[in-house]
Amino acid sequence: MNTKKYRVGEGGKLKLSSYKTDETGKGSEAEALARAEERQPKLAALQERLYAEAKQSLLIVLQARDAGGKDGTVKHVLFGLNPQGVVVTSFKAPTPLELAHDFLWRVHAHAPAAGMMAVFNRSHYEDVLVTRVHGLIDQQTTQARYEHIRAFEALLSSRGTRIVKLYLHISKDEQKERLQDRLDDPDKTWKFNLGDLKERDLWDDYTLAYQDALSATSSKQAPWYVIPADHKWFRNELIGQILLDTLEDMNPQFPEADFDPAKVEIR
User: Are the C-beta atoms of residues 234 and 32 closer than 8 Å to each other?
Assistant: First the structure.
């Protein structure tokens, strides 16, 4: 699978309307599920090497509109990995303590340690999305935060953290169906938040905010990918392949023993 077509280039101006939300590639869902079965052992083996090597780390940033599929991505793409080596952090509305610091303060503490994989389910990008759309920051502050984000991600990269940022791109019609499904299914009603409807009314404002944020912060060391996410199975396959390609490129290695195993006798 060619994942490069979904990668946002550095510089230039992204238009989300140029990216399909309902793409399914050339294969079928059944074929994608079969490929996932083949891919997961490879991901698990690479994760084990990453953990054992303890020199590099991987940060996965998930951003999406409400009902965009962030939780489903974590559940279906990262299944089978050793939970000891994966940490998922969900960033909600900041607490008073967090608001008393700079906007990256609460995020930096959750960056992955050497050997670890970390998933940000929402992230520092909320502070140039929600805050902008709701008029909590002005354009000058937004631009300054883009600069801070680029510097922050460059710092992580310089310390051995590979960063993959995924925008789950769904259509307004698909979001409506998913929100309605939460209302209709008693087992999913707990997921429904009346505030999501207010955010939905700001769809076009969020589109502009996402376009600007992705354009301003996609870089070689921390690229954005626009993931067609109307079809969950294709979303999962594409993200799984991106993560596999990334880990293979990182090529973590088991450390060599500092002793000769052949000379060790266990009595």
Answer: yes
